[in-house]
């Protein structure tokens, strides 16, 4: 496309400068606050952050919910994506449209809908009481279960779309050939589908895990102050305590967790491919 590499670099230079000015520089300034204490550069602030039992609890809760949401999204996503790609073209387009539709609705509206569904007088509790499974409504809101459901519903479409793209690029005769050779469906998934769609799983897993870590609206509404996550803790440190040093530490932890998840998924996919 370009006669030499310099022409391509010259065209990309304005975008790179713009990204550096409006993103890298502000983020660098924010993150540097966590490494400065009393005029010197140190990691003592990070050690102090994890000395707090509250901070450790919030960290492990965020990591746990992110991992569970990602794992459940992968299981549901594979089943849904495989069912969609085996449909005729017209029906496939309609189903993909249904998957994309929730992404067109504001996360705030989608999250508030769960308050109506999971509330004490919501559909779930009314059904439980009507079936006689409980005499009184069960508290679902402001629990880890509510946050998990909200995050799963929020990011599951991203996993499904990533896996649909990967499955559509898979050879059409791969699964039938494995079945003809005597493989059961578990063997077909582990030996054929999973290796051939690992790129889609890495992309979908990164999007879902990173989104679960950094989402604020859903944990704030469905979890409240009883189920703090790192992102809601960051918001509290900035708006309530005006503690930008702690906020920069939390931001750095979230970035490290996101990049680590992506590298881990890539490493697992590469190791499986080598085997």
What does this structure look like?
With 275 residues, the protein is an all-alpha fold. It folds into two domains: 1-42, no CATH class; 53-274, MetI-like fold (Orthogonal Bundle), CATH 1.10.3720. The chain contains 13 helices and two strands, in the order H-E-E-H-H-H-H-H-H-H-H-H-H-H-H. A two-stranded antiparallel sheet has the order 1-2. A hairpin with a 2-residue loop joins strand 1 (36-37) and strand 2.
Give the helix/strand layout.
Blueprint: H1 5-32, E1 36-37, E2 40-41, H2 44-51, H3 53-85, H4 89-100, H5 107-118, H6 123-130, H7 144-168, H8 174-180, H9 185-196, H10 198-214, H11 217-223, H12 230-239, H13 244-274
Antiparallel strand pairs: 1-2
Helix pairs in contact: 3-7, 3-10, 5-11, 7-10, 7-11, 8-9, 10-13, 12-13
Keywords:
globular; two-stranded antiparallel ribbon; 13 helices; MetI-like fold; mainly alpha; MetI-like; cell membrane; transport; MetI-like_sf; 275 residues; 2 strands; single chain; transmembrane
Short description:
By secondary structure, this protein is an all-alpha fold. It contains 13 helices and two strands.
């Amino acid at each position: 496309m370009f006669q030499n590499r310099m022409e391509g670099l010259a065209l990309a230079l304005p975008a790179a400068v713009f990204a550096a000015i409006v993103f890298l520089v502000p983020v660098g300034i924010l993150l540097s606050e966590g490494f400065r204490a009393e005029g010197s550069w140190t990691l003592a602030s990070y050690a102090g952050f994890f000395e707090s039992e509250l901070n450790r609890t919030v960290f492990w809760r965020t990591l746990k919910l992110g991992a569970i949401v990602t794992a459940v999204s992968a299981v549901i996503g594979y089943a849904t994506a495989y069912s969609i790609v085996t449909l005729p073209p017209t029906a496939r387009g309609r189903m993909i449209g249904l998957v994309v539709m929730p992404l067109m609705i504001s996360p705030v509206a989608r999250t508030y809908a769960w308050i109506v569904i999971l509330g004490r007088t919501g559909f779930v509790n009314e059904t439980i009481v009507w079936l006689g499974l409980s005499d009184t409504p069960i508290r679902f809101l402001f629990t880890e279960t509510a946050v998990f459901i909200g995050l799963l519903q929020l990011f599951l479409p991203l996993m499904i779309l990533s896996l649909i793209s990967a499955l559509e690029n898979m050879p059409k005769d791969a699964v039938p050939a494995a079945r003809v050779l005597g493989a059961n469906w578990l063997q077909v998934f582990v030996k054929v589908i999973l290796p051939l769609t690992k790129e889609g799983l890495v992309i979908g897993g990164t999007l879902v895990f990173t989104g679960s870590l950094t989402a604020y609206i859903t944990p704030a509404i469905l979890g409240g102050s009883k189920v703090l996550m790192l992102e809601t803790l960051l918001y509290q440190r900035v708006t309530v305590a005006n503690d930008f040093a702690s906020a920069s530490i939390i931001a750095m932890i979230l970035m490290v967790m996101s990049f680590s998840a992506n590298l881990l998924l890539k490493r697992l996919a590469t190791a499986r491919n080598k085997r």
